[in-house]
């Protein structure tokens, strides 16, 4: 039960990231969230939308794992590992904040899934 709530939270975080990258990237809110200049945001809008789409796939995989219930164990583990690894890469190359927003929640959820919590 707790594990599924945590997996759902990670999925919701990624749905929010999708919204930020695909819809709000080139807005004042997106500029502030991602520390972008309006010029850079405008020039990179298509790339951000592509990145958002990938985050959407991560959310979809987690939702799929939740939908399958106990049979979705391996799917949840796989997608949580993908989220954690992507977060580590993002923290190393873009911003340490990504470690706390993406990797830590995924690691906590992954631990709960493994423990069967």
List the helices and strands and how they pair.
Elements: H1 2-22, H2 28-34, H3 38-43, H4 45-67, H5 73-93, H6 97-115
Helix pairs in contact: 1-4, 1-6, 4-5, 5-6
Average pLDDT level: 96
How would a textbook summarize the main sheet? none
Unreliable sequence segments: none
- Outline type: elongated
Classification by helices and strands: mainly alpha
Indicate the percent of residues in helices. Answer: over 70%
Describe the structure.
Helices cover 83% and strands 0% of the residues. It contains 6 helices and no strands. 26% of the residues are buried. The chain is mainly α and 117 residues long. It starts with a helix and ends with a helix.
What are the salient characteristics of this protein?
mainly alpha; 6 helices; 117 residues
Short description:
The chain is mainly α and about 120 residues long. The protein is built from six helices and no strands. The radius of gyration is 15 Å and the shape is elongated.
């Amino acid at each position: 039960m707790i594990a599924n709530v945590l997996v759902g939270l990670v999925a919701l975080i990624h749905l929010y990231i999708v919204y930020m990258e695909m819809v709000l990237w080139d807005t004042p809110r997106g500029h502030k969230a991602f520390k972008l200049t309006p010029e850079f945001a405008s020039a990179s809008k298509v790339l951000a939308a592509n990145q958002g789409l990938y985050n959407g796939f991560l959310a979809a995989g987690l939702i799929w794992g939740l939908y399958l219930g106990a049979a979705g164990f391996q799917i949840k583990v796989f997608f949580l590992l993908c989220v954690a690894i992507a977060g580590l890469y993002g923290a190393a190359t873009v911003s340490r904040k990504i470690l706390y927003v993406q990797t830590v929640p995924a690691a906590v959820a992954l631990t709960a899934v493994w423990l069967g919590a």
